[in-house]
Design brief:
Chain lengths: 457, 71
């Protein structure tokens, strides 16, 4: 860090990412609350544990190989080999992957990406509650969190990714690279996993399985909104000079940029985050006829739909894009549920997957011709590139790998819990000593009270 | 002798890089870490499979009915 300005910029950037990571932790807290609130009492602890253990498993694997994938895969395997120069510096045995006074950015930047990895895995976790084996889900968590999403990030969420160069792919706040892929992945898993017992009547009519605790869901989704705000900030480079970017930008004006090093500002994304949240909430309230949970989820789906272009949209565009997306997502969710008899317990495929896909396609039209990068020779944003990008994210890197791995797990008999256990509840099955002890002490207390009670005269 | 490579902080920080202990053993540490991770999955996988197999037979019908009532 030669020079005070350089030192100040580096330490500001380090602190900036550090704060975003802390905010993003709230996304996981929110997901845990949402999942537990949506599950029935007999599955609480299992549901919670399933999501909590995503944290360490994705963290260590993202350290071991996920972060290397991001730096090594921008062109691999379709447009070149592995980028060893960038990749090697981010291997787990690299000196910069540890306490190192000559590098103050790698740790916080790694963590910012890691929190996205948790989110991707957690999205899948919600769709499969109350019937998946933890061991099966945790394999999927590692795959989506430390392999598939980070490959898509290397391809389409990296200043040198081939999708950006050749397709003009633009996805500033991760409509596709987090949400479409995670939604597609969740769809692949639930298609093999099957619905919960009782979800569909004999004639195929879907039954609602209402959340056991609406308030927990409400707080959960508000925490997700809050963490999502941190996520938006984490998607930016906070302060950088045109000289450092080294692209086609001229002059000496420093700026914040998106992940592609193209200029934007925190002010812009604050406008658009709030307006897309509002558009999503309003549209969802109307389309769901005031259903509380669809309204809350609609806020989230609204932001996700607008996220691809929220670095550049006008706030009113962000609001309208969000509103349109939510209507499509809502209709699509129920159509898929009826048509394919799929049980997406928290609407994750719809809120994340469909919203991400719709958002990418819309942004291709609204941002048609806008530069995807500050570097020369990159394709401009266009509807075909965005649509292809959506297909790659949702199906190529999400649905297909999930379906294949789930099929293997199902064939080996290690995907779904036994029916008997599903009925008695995973908490009873896993914690029956606790449940038995509780029942016993309640009975003992009742017996004691009955023995002490004085008969009424 | 110091495990981190520095015995005092009388240094120019511009010259300082890694300061964690046992520098040079990063590959070994990675192998240990990966073994810990894979081992964890193995232990959990075996334990869960065995547990679910046993749990299939432990359900007292009355207790299962009581669980179903607990929405």
């Amino acid at each position: 860090m030669d020079g005070n300005l350089n030192a100040l910029t580096t330490i500001f950037t380090e602190f900036y990412y550090f704060v975003t990571v802390v905010f993003m932790f709230l996304i996981h807290v929110g997901f845990c609350m949402y999942e537990v609130g949506a599950s029935r009492r007999r599955n609480h602890m299992h549901t919670l544990m399933k999501n909590v253990m995503i944290i360490p498993l994705v963290t260590v694997t993202f350290f071991f190989f996920g972060w290397w994938i991001y730096w090594a895969f921008p062109d691999f395997p379709f447009f070149g080999g592995l980028n060893h120069e960038m990749g090697d510096a981010n291997l787990p045995w690299s000196e910069t992957m540890g306490t190192n006074l000559s590098d103050r950015i790698t740790g916080v930047f790694w963590a910012a990406f890691l929190l996205f990895s948790w989110t991707a895995a957690s999205i899948v976790s919600g769709a499969v509650i109350e019937r998946i084996r933890s061991s099966a889900l945790w394999v999927h968590a590692v795959l989506i969190g430390s392999v598939w999403w980070i490959i898509d990030a290397a391809w389409g969420w990296h200043y040198a990714g081939w999708m950006v160069k050749y397709l003009g792919y633009h996805d500033a706040y991760a409509s596709g690279v987090i949400h479409a892929i995670a939604g597609g992945y969740a769809l692949g898993v639930i298609m093999v996993l099957g619905p919960r017992i009782g979800k569909f009547a004999k004639d195929g009519t879907p039954r609602d399985i209402p959340p056991h605790n609406p308030w927990m869901l409400t707080i959960g989704i508000f925490l997700i909104y809050t963490g999502f705000w941190g996520f938006y900030a984490a998607c930016n480079v906070p302060l950088i000079s045109p000289e450092v970017i080294g692209g086609e930008l001229t002059g000496t004006t420093w700026t914040a940029t998106n992940i592609y090093l193209a200029p934007t500002s925190l002010s812009a994304i604050t406008f658009n985050f709030l307006m897309s949240l509002s558009g999503g909430l309003m549209a969802a309230y109307v389309i769901s006829k005031g259903d509380a949970f669809w309204t809350f989820s609609g806020g989230l789906a609204g932001i996700i739909t607008a996220s691809a272009g929220n670095d550049l949209y006008h706030p009113i565009q962000a609001m309208l894009v969000a509103a349109v997306g939510v209507v499509i997502v809502y209709k699509l969710h129920y159509w898929v549920e009826r048509r394919f008899k799929l049980d997406d317990a928290v609407g994750a495929v719809a809120v994340h997957g469909y919203a991400g896909v719709v958002g990418l396609i819309i942004s291709g039209f609204v941002l048609w011709g806008a530069p995807s990068s500050p570097f020369e020779g990159y394709a401009a944003v266009n509807p075909i590139g965005q649509t292809l990008g959506a297909v790659i994210m949702f199906f190529g890197l999400g649905f297909i790998p999930a379906w294949c791995v789930s099929k293997l797990q199902a064939r080996a008999g290690v995907l779904r819990i036994p029916e008997e256990v599903e009925l008695m509840g995973l908490d009873y099955a896993e914690h029956h000593a606790y449940e038995d002890a509780k029942a016993e002490i309640i009975e003992a207390d009742k017996a004691h009270m009955a023995a002490k009670a004085t008969p009424a005269e | 002798m110091s495990t981190i490579g520095y015995e005092s902080w009388a240094v120019d920080l511009a010259e300082v890089g890694a300061i964690y202990p046992f520098q040079g053993s990063e590959v070994l540490m990675t192998l240990l870490g990966v073994a810990f991770w894979i081992g964890w999955h193995r232990i959990q996988f075996v334990r869960e499979g065995k547990h679910l197999e046993e749990a299939k037979r432990t359900g007292d019908p009355d207790k299962v009915h009581a669980q179903l009532e607990r929405y």
